[in-house]
Amino acid sequence: MEKMKILWVCNVPIPRIAADMNVNVPNICGWLTGFANSIEKLDNIELYIAFPQLGIKEIKAGTVGKIHYYAFSQPKLLGFLPVEDQVHESKYMREHLRTIISKVSPDLLHIFGTEYPHSLVAAEEFNNPEKTVVNIQGLPSFYWMHFNNGIPYKELKRFTLSNIARGNLLQQAEKMKRRGMTEISTIKAVGHVIGRTDWDEACTKEINPKVQYHFCNESLRDSFYSGDWEYQNCEKHSIFMSQAATPIKGLHFMLRAMPEILKNYPDAHLYIAGNDLTKTDSLYGKLKISSFAKYIKRLISEYNLEEKVTFTGSLTEQKMKERFLKSNVFVSPSTIENSPNSLGEAMLLGVPCISSDVGGVKNMLLHNLEGYIYQADAPYMIAYYVKKVFNDADCALIISKNAKSHAGKTHNRDENLKMLLKIYRELYEQ
């Protein structure tokens, strides 16, 4: 096959590039690193990666290994407003992407993430839909409808000082809806999408019935391909959640399940990856706390969970792996997901998993065989399945083994690379 030049447009730099630029190394998008490392070894593909960097006025370019990279301008935030409220259009961003595309002259453009302003701008500037493919990550044009599931109406409208910047929970859902408008425009501007679940295929086809859908699973972060969960070495009756910063991640459902779990297992403990969103031990903390965080704080108090919930702080890849392996069970109580990488990572390690029945989860985890899937708005079912795992070590070991086997196939790096390269060849040759 002829040598192809492929330009990736990503939301963040992969860790190797971040380190080369001396900027913060992201703990997200580990699957990008997996694909990039594999593609770098190929002689028939020349890989270029472009990504935004806040506030720069000149393109920053460099090379790590055989990968060429470009950082382009991302509009500055308006004061302390969140990312979704930033100015979405910038002359620098468009000029930079136009320059990068012209300089690289790629055979194919591969965009990761649909909702970002730069995704749409890149598609517009390349202006070749049949040679452009966008990878589905989340889908905010559908996510927003599930943003506040399970939160009482009075909490949705509750005012905090942080609302001045963020808005209340109803307004935050509307902001996600507006982000979804960019996503809709992007999916309509490209000829191809890459997804991995029945759910994301249905969603993209609803947006653009003419788009060509390609299936390709994701490869995950390197360290999760080694290591095995062992019942005898885990912290008994410990529960782990990998994210909880927004209502979508469903922490409120998990907290509602805890009293029922504690009736039978009074030593049960919930660990949550990330900083303590309820922390208000400073003036800044009191000003920053969100409506959702206040609601979480009230739930913790109402159910007397102060000694039963621990926020771990931000976790590196290795620390995240260690926390998975220490856990008796992993719970993903999200109100909506496509295919959560945290669930894939837990399955790869063999951690017993419980997940809400949302989005594309059924494409990842088979109920009763590899873990447990429950109705998303039913915290009593979280409690039921957590207790089932705690109560039956043999059952936990069976679903652990089966989940690990399934995830090993879903996230097989060699097979996923073959799928991706097949897509590239199809687009290149058409």
Total of domains:
2
Number of helix segments? 17
Largest sheet: 8 strands, mixed
**Structure summary, number of beta strands:** 14
Structural class: alpha/beta
Silhouette? globular
Average pLDDT, all residues: 91
Return the CATH architecture of the largest domain. 3-Layer(aba) Sandwich
Oligomer designation: single chain
**CATH homologous superfamily title of the largest domain:** Glycogen Phosphorylase B
Strand order across the largest sheet? 3-4-2-1-5-6-7-8
**What proportion of the residues is helical, as a percent range?**
40-55%
- Low-pLDDT parts are 77-88
Please identify the top-level CATH class of the largest domain: Alpha Beta
Question: Which value, in Å, is the CA radius of gyration?
Answer: 22 Å
How large a portion of the residues is in β-strands, by DSSP E? 15-25%
CATH topology-level name of the largest domain:
Rossmann fold
